[in-house]
């Protein structure tokens, strides 16, 4: 008799067909990697098929794999990872789709499948620069409108490119190149001989 996870993996293979790259089961979780081109259709199948019924999108996360595995990663750099929940079957699924172009990562939006993807996709665009084609209002969500770059990319500098400050002379907010000098902050540890000793 097949386990619940084996049943889910088999149902995924039957439902998604050639759009499915592979399915893995590890630590009690199922992950399906799907092709970017057929992402929208895959998500509709996952939501609408009675044997799957993933009716809830929990989260969408952007990922930059450029330094994954200490630089041993040789696949596409950017991916979106979707976490789905089926209330009817009480199972979860992770779906990963890689953008084909590392220089300009684009994936289809799934807002028309799950409206809750709206802000999640905006967050992935803002922090990773992943463009979601078909999104109704793709703009920055967490950073300022004048922000340069995408701060969660592995090659983004720790101190950023520009800084924003209020200039009292001009009486407005201005942008200027970063003036923070890199420094290493190492906490000093002071040890006392009888620290914690209640007898002394």
CATH architecture: 2-Layer Sandwich
| Domains, number | 1
Query: What is the name of the CATH topology?
Result: Beta Polymerase, domain 2
SSE string: HEEHEEEEHEEE
In angstroms, what separates the terminal alpha carbons?
Answer: 66 Å
- Which sheet architecture does the biggest sheet show? 5 strands, mixed
Number of strands: 9
* Helix proportion range: 10-25%
Coarse structural class: alpha/beta
What's the rounded overall pLDDT mean? 88
> Number of helical segments?
3
Strand content: 25-35%
Low-confidence stretches: none
What best-fitting shape do the alpha-carbon axes yield?
A: extended
Backbone CA Rg: 23 Å
CATH class (first level) name: Alpha Beta
CATH-defined superfamily: NADH:ubiquinone oxidoreductase Nqo5 subunit
Care to describe what's here?
With 200 residues, this protein is of the alpha/beta class. It has one domain (4-144): NADH:ubiquinone oxidoreductase Nqo5 subunit (Beta Polymerase, domain 2), CATH 3.30.460. It contains 3 helices and 9 strands. It has helices at residues 4-16, 39-48, 117-128; strands at 20-26, 29-34, 56-64, 78-86, 91-98, 106-108, 131-133, 162-167, 172-177. The strands form 3 sheets. It has a 5-stranded mixed β-sheet with strand order 1-2-5-4-3. A two-stranded parallel sheet has the order 6-7. Strands 8-9 form a two-stranded antiparallel ribbon.
């Amino acid at each position: 008799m097949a386990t619940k996870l084996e049943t889910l993996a088999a149902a995924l293979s039957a439902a998604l067909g050639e759009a499915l790259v592979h399915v893995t089961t590890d630590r009690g979780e199922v992950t399906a990697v799907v092709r970017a081109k057929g992402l929208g259709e895959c998500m509709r199948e996952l939501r609408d098929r009675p044997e799957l019924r993933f009716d809830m999108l929990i989260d969408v996360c952007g990922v930059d794999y450029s330094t994954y595995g200490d630089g041993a990663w040789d696949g596409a750099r950017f991916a979106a990872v979707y976490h789905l929940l089926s209330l009817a079957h009480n199972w979860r699924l992770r779906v990963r789709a890689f953008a084909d172009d590392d220089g300009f990562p684009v994936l289809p939006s799934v807002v028309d499948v799950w409206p809750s993807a709206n802000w999640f996709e905006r967050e992935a665009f803002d922090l990773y620069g992943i463009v979601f084609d078909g999104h109704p209002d793709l703009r920055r969500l967490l950073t300022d409108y004048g922000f340069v770059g995408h701060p969660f990319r592995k090659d983004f500098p720790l101190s950023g490119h520009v800084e924003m400050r209020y200039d009292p002379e001009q009486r407005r907010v201005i942008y200027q190149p970063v003036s923070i000098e890199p420094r290493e902050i190492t906490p000093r540890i002071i040890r006392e001989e009888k620290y914690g000793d209640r007898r002394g």
